[in-house]
Each structure stands twice: as C-alpha cells, then as structure tokens.
C-alpha cells in the first residue's frame, strides 16, 4: 500500500491487491495473527485493533498503517477475484511468493486480449521502513519504464541497469491478458 499511495500521488493509475486466502496482520504473538476477509474495510480493521489493544497496535505501526490505507482505498482486494476485471501494463510484487502466484494466475487465464503485461518482483522486507524504500524504487522503475519508447524492446536493458544502480535484484516475466 505504501507503493500504491506514492505512485498514485505521482500521477500513476494504480490498483493494489493481495494474493492470499485472507488478510493477515500481526497480532499479540506470531501464533495469534489478526485475520480478516478480503473486502473488510480498513476502517473496520482499525476500529477492531483499537478496541483490542490500542497501545500494542499503535506501537507496532498497524494503526497508522491502517489509517493511511483507508485514505488510499476502502478495503483490501484479492488479485484472483478482482484483477480479472482490469488490464495492466505492469504488475509489481514485493515478495517472490506473490510474484509466482501472479505469474501462475496470468498463465492459467484465457488470453482473450493478447495484450502483454510485465510482472516485476522487487523483494521488500515487510516493515514500514523497507516499504518506504521499496515504494521509492518502484516509482523510479515506473518512471524508467514510462520513459522508454517501448518497454517490450528495452526491458532487457532497463532491468540490469536498475539492478546495478540500486543494488537490488529483480525478477520479471512477460505475460498476456
């Protein structure tokens, strides 16, 4: 959501999705996560966590994160159920497992449009500081892709240059709708 918020502020047309079965947020222990259905409004999650333990969830950053998320969109959406409605030029993931799920989903769909989509993974640790860094890197890469006359022709040059400049390894795949 950090990348979603930043890219939107910078004028990009952005959607964001999760790929799991549920939305899982840290709880009081690793064995007690807070689990919500996709579509549960961020405000409802915020109110729920504030009722449970406001100090814990303020201290670990969940309450501020949920407040930010609610200003970006109403609720989390699941890729497998919602992304079929759209057509994207580029899809970013920030975890290799998610990248694999998105690529697999795209390969298993009917390719009615035969429109290319670039799927990129930029691994980011799941914490607030890394999310801010990852969002900035995603913005930089989006700007490079947008500046290219055709990313289809230059992606094999853009990715290695980005990796050298930012010392981050990217995975990418070209799929179709």
From TrEMBL:
EC number: 3.1.3.16
Catalytic activity line of the entry: O-phospho-L-threonyl-[protein] + H2O = L-threonyl-[protein] + phosphate; O-phospho-L-seryl-[protein] + H2O = L-seryl-[protein] + phosphate
Domain of life: Eukaryota
A molecular function (GO) term: RNA polymerase II CTD heptapeptide repeat phosphatase activity
Pfam families for this protein: Ssu72
InterPro entries registered for this protein in UniProt: RNA_pol_II_suA (IPR006811)
Entry keyword set: Hydrolase, mRNA processing, Nucleus, Protein phosphatase
Compartments in which it is found: Nucleus
Coiled coil: none
Chief localisation class: nucleus
UniProt GO BP: mRNA processing; termination of RNA polymerase II transcription
Gene Ontology cellular component list: mRNA cleavage and polyadenylation specificity factor complex
Family: Belongs to the SSU72 phosphatase family.
Role this protein plays: Protein phosphatase that catalyzes the dephosphorylation of the C-terminal domain of RNA polymerase II. Plays a role in RNA processing and termination.
Record's protein name: RNA polymerase II subunit A C-terminal domain phosphatase SSU72
Annotated source species: Amborella trichopoda
């Amino acid at each position: 959501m950090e990348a979603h918020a930043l890219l939107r502020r910078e004028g990009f047309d952005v959607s964001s999705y999760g790929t799991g079965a549920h939305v899982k947020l840290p709880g009081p222990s690793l064995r007690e996560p807070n689990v919500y259905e996709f579509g549960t409004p961020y405000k409802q999650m915020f109110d729920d966590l504030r009722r449970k333990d406001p100090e814990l969830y303020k201290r670990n950053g969940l309450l501020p994160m949920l407040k930010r998320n609610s200003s970006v969109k109403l609720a989390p959406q699941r890729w497998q159920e919602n992304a079929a409605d759209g057509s994207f030029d580029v899809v970013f993931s920030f975890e290799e497992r998610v990248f694999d799920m998105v690529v697999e989903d795209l390969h298993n769909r009917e390719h009615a449009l035969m429109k290319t989509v670039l799927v990129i993974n930029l691994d980011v640790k799941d914490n607030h500081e890394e999310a801010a860094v990852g969002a900035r890197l995603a913005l930089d890469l989006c700007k490079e892709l947008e500046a290219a006359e055709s990313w289809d022709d230059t992606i094999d040059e853009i990715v290695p240059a980005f990796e050298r400049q930012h010392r981050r390894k990217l995975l990418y795949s070209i799929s179709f709708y």
